[in-house]
């Protein structure tokens, strides 16, 4: 029985073995991805999730990586998206869209750009060339990738049940780049990073991300910012108000 079939419930009780799966749908998807990689017969791997990484370009800011898999043939950086619905987006767009029906749409930050920043931060942290990294954007089996960019040498976009197959294809064509000693050094560095990624650090990361001025897009929800007039003068507010209450000076 395939690992994804087991995870999806065809083997009773398998989900109980996934730690912290009750912490929300996003974390649930990351747990499924982490479990699949650890039990996918990919060889000697080390898998870490929800790692908070300081950015060398700005010591006050951080990146949070959903899942990282270390293999002798490279470092696989995985951005997990646990959406349902139709997914639309391009490589250059700032925001992508998930559509559940004609009356329900949600925007989210371009995961290609998001994971590109993760790779950069992890490359700096581990002191490795970016060529050693592979970027994967993984969506839930419940969604349909209606219009997304084709895979490139930089990134792969797939649904979770295709993840292991795509990684195996990469492993078949990649040569080993880490010897045993280097692998253990990198494993230790990633383990220390994961251990230091406490809930407090994650909360601080979210708050920092919310403070980023993203131009004409709301940094909280991705909706368009519109100019409004208030008691104390004009300001920019989220067009999704009152669902989202983000504001900033005009």
Helix residue percentage: 25-40%
CATH top level of the largest domain is Alpha Beta
Low-pLDDT segments: 6-22, 210-214
Query: On the 0-100 scale, what is the average pLDDT?
Result: 82
Please describe the biggest sheet, giving its number of strands, its sense, and whether it closes into a barrel. Answer: 5 strands, mixed
Strand order of the largest sheet: 1-2-3-7-9
Q: Which range does the strand content fall in?
A: 25-35%
The number of distinct β-strands equals: 12
Structural class call reads alpha/beta
Please name the CATH architecture of the largest domain. Answer: 3-Layer(aba) Sandwich
Give the SSE order as H and E letters.
Answer: HHEEEEEEHEEEHHHEEE
Radius of gyration: 19 Å
- What overall form do the CA principal axes indicate? globular
Tell me the domain tally. Answer: 2
Distance between the termini: 57 Å
Short précis:
The chain is of the alpha/beta class and 250 residues long. It has helices at residues 3-10, 25-38, 111-126, 163-173, 180-195, 199-210; strands spanning 46-55, 58-71, 74-81, 85-88, 95-101, 104-109, 133-139, 143-147, 155-159, 225-230, 233-238, 247-249. A hairpin with a 2-residue loop joins strand 2 (58-71) and strand 3 (74-81).
């Amino acid at each position: 029985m395939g690992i994804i079939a087991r995870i999806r419930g065809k083997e009773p009780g398998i989900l109980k073995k996934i730690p912290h799966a009750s912490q929300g749908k996003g974390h649930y998807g990351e747990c499924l991805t982490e479990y699949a990689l650890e039990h996918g017969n990919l060889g000697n791997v080390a898998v870490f999730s929800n790692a908070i990484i300081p950015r060398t370009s700005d010591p006050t800011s951080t990146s949070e990586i959903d899942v990282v898999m270390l293999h002798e043939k490279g470092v696989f950086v995985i951005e997990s998206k646990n959406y349902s619905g139709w997914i639309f987006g391009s490589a250059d767009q700032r925001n992508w869209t998930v559509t559940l029906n004609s009356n329900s749409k949600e925007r989210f930050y371009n995961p290609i750009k998001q994971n590109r920043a993760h790779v950069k931060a992890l490359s700096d942290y581990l002191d490795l060339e970016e060529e050693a990294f592979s970027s994967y954007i993984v969506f839930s089996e419940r969604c349909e990738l209606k219009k997304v960019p084709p895979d490139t040498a930089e990134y792969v976009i797939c649904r979770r049940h295709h993840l292991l197959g795509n990684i195996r294809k990469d492993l078949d064509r990649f040569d080993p780049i880490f010897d045993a000693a280097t692998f253990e050094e990198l494993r230790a560095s990633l383990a220390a990073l994961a251990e230091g990624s406490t809930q407090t650090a994650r909360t601080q990361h979210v708050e920092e991300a919310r403070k980023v001025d993203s131009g004409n897009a709301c940094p909280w929800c991705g909706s368009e910012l519109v100019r409004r007039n208030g008691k104390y003068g004009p300001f920019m507010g989220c067009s999704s108000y009152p669902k989202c209450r983000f504001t900033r000076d005009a």
